[in-house]
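This part of the workshop introduces the protein records we will be handling. An example says more than a description, so a record of this kind follows.
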Amino acid sequence: MSENAFRFFRGTCHLFYEDLGKQNPLSQYPLTWICGDLHLENFGSYKGDNRLVYFDLNDFDEALLAPATWELARIITSIFVGFEALGIRLSEAVHMSKLFLSTYSTVLANGKPKYIEPQTAKGIVKLFLEKVENRKLKILLKQRTIKTGDRINFLLDNKRVFKLNTPLKKELISFIRIWLRKNHKNRFTVLDAGFRIAGTGSIGIKRYVFLLRNINNPKKFLLVDMKQAKQSSVQPFVDVQQPAWENDAERVVAIQRRMQNISPALLNSAIFKDECYVIKEMQPTADKIDFLLIKDKYKYITRVIEDMALLTASAQLRSSGRQGSAIADDLIAFGKDVKWQESLINYASSYAKQVKKDFSNYSKDFKKGVFSNVSKL
């Protein structure tokens, strides 16, 4: 998080909603299902359970029921913070924020959710999806594994994959074997397991990765990600009655399934040692748009922002009328009413300055070693 203000913003979702909850500056417009931590890098590609590649919202750890304006405030603030980190002019951030909200409102007003796959994508997103669609699992395996004779195991580089202590590793492999038998009819055998680190906001969360081999076709492998689910960081600050989920993994999986057009392969929840986890396939097609590469390409940025707005509105329409969320008619009316947009942009622009101040204070403390004991835990 010490890299820049945008990285800090990504890793401090709880601070954003704590401040938003206290100030409560935005009108309480229709309740919708939100991913909670919506920002420029929480849209990306993945392979669905139908084996096709999609571009969509892709992080639902903080997902819950909340005012639609809360989700929008988060993504618009990320435009201001992210663009400044990239060296893009403030005037462009304002323009792109207006473009996002205009596109979002138009899609809502039309009342029909849309989706993006290689065949329907345009511009930079189309090029991006065509590129990741051609990625092969064997390339990912080559990067993450090492072969010794007939054995294949994870490459323990202490950057992406770390060694597990032997008792825990045995427990995890036994657990995933049982889970596979229950859900996939003994199609795979487990070769190895490791501790995985991925995601700025996921540091400190238990996360494991498994290497599987297809029993009927030994040349085919599969990587499975298993991530601990915690209470949404938005939960303490939103005054909205939530459904009585069985656990937080059930919450994440249920909301992701209803907001995305197609779910990622193997998406499911599980309990391991009295803690809940989200399980899904780890894929070579999983990636996100690198804004650093397109920061000087105005046409590309415009297209990406429009697509992100389309996907945000579509996710809310797709999940409308479910367990307390507004029905489609209310969202359509919200899309036709644009009076709230200016105040939301003003709030996001102002809060971006607060993020910059918080990051400055964090950086000073980081350099002083205030967090050194935390990093050793």
Summary: The mean pLDDT is 90. The radius of gyration is 21 Å. The chain has two domains: 5-134+296-375, 137-282.
